[in-house]
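User: I'm designing a mutation panel for High affinity sulphate transporter 1 and want to avoid disrupting the core. Could you give me a predicted structure to guide residue selection? Please restate the sequence first so the numbering is unambiguous.

Assistant: Good idea. Sequence first, for numbering, then the predicted structure tokens:
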Amino acid sequence: MRSDDPPPDSAPFATSAEGWLRWLPGLQVLRQYRLAWLPNDIAAGLVLTAMLVPVGIAYAEASGVPGIYGLYATIVPLLAYALFGPSRILVLGPDSALAAPILAVILVTAGGDPAKAITLAGMMAVVSGLVCILAGLLRLGFVTELLSKPIRYGYMNGIALAVLISQLPKLFGISIDGRGPLQDVLQLGQAILAGEANWYSFAVGAGCLALILLLKPFKRLPGILVAVILATLAVSFFDLHEVGVKVLGELPQGLPAFTVPWLSDVDWIEVLLGGFAIALVSFTDTSVLSRTYAAITRSKVDPNQEMVGLGIANLAAGFFQGIPISSSSSRTPVAEAAGSKTQLTGVIGALAVAALLLAAPNLLRYLPNSALAAVVIAAAIGLFEITDLKRIFRMQQWEFWLSFTCFVGVAVYGAIPGIALAVAISIIEFLWDGWRPHYAVLGRANGVRGYHDVQRYPDARRVPGLVLFRWDAPLFFANAELFQQRILQAIEESPTPVRRVVVAAEPVTSVDVTSADMLGELRGKLHERGIELHFAEMKDPVKDKLRQFELVEKLGPNIFQPTVGAAVDAYLEDHGVDWSP
């Protein structure tokens, strides 16, 4: 680490940090701040501002609320995250991945009322913030790992398609009654065939999209900023707003005010589901991005603190007229490439946006809506993951088809049902893996140390009268009966009469009440047939569980061996079997 580099992100969690200070990483950074970092943070903050403004406006519009609320969601949340967020590099704000779930709730619940849409967005920000904070305090930061990579890809590909389709009408200068991706495509096609498209608007938007994509490989050249500036100048110079090109218009002057977003006559189920979905998506994105930059900086990530920081930032968004936010995979690299050292970069960016709203709110009045649509479409294109899905298809096709099912679910039914489908598929996938795990009967293969699967080593020698059985999964209610069936099957298929079964239990990481009762039942069945049940390499926490379930006394005190080899030796000695390993 160079002398001018900041300490690792894990500094707030050093052993010297105690009590409430642990939850305020920003204060730790302030105490350790070096003046040598200040020029880098200021410069990076100003560069970042050039991205915060157009992207914040564009994602707010994509979420179904006026663009100004995307800027409101940029100011106070960045300040809050600078204090409570553990990462020194992440930039938070409105995000393309959240646009679809926010819009889905607004379309169903707001009834076309802009004021109601704004309040609903604030309510969802508060709900998602509370969910993240509670999950962080309960140390549930691991929950995002429950969504496997293929499931995540499927969901995000579906979100990307939904967001892209939702912006096409704006690109063509057409207004439609959005009801979901499929209906939007049909309405858009009908409107274009009816001659309702504004081709000036399309030319501006398509030009912006092409420019953004062409400049994307050039990390130090802000393609979004260049495209937005050129589009704004073109509309202003050629008076394109006079020929039907819709523009942003004047922004309200001033800063966001504190307000409690509340509607009494609202479908709370929709709001709560939307808030939960947003919390899951935003924290998943934030967790992945945080781990990515932690690997680059060789620092540690505390997912629970990350949840709390993200949750507080979302609360700030909700209570200061903003919309739900997440980390940004487009703005964070800009800050990093510009030389950001700490979260002061985000603070500078927030203050610069605030200064814009106070001093020059009309600067963007000629910004065309089709250019904002191009910004969102470019972001949606970046969300698609195709390359790795090809690899997954080659490696394991059934996981690819799970991903595709999730993608279709989001594309057909929308973001909120889509994420419910993603979670359901993930749970089913987890249960399926545990329900039908790999198992093996073991023998001694010539020239190979240890005991191995006789299916993979057909020449492996089996110990007469002994079944060595390995179960490669935790034991729980879903697979307990299958475990018993496979043990009894191995006994029936043994080439010699069985006197003892030894379960190689090293892969068994846990047991529950159902599986413990099954072991007691299995022991009874084997005892009736004169067969002993022993265990090898069982972990101490699993033994503790068996004691807790009062099973050790029933099974017997001398049934545990430290290794499979020791279990074989004990069997040979106990039964006087002459067999050479």
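For picking mutation sites, this is relevant: Strands lie at 92-93, 326-327, 439-443, 452-453, 466-471, 500-504, 532-536, 560-561. The longest strand covers residues 466-471.
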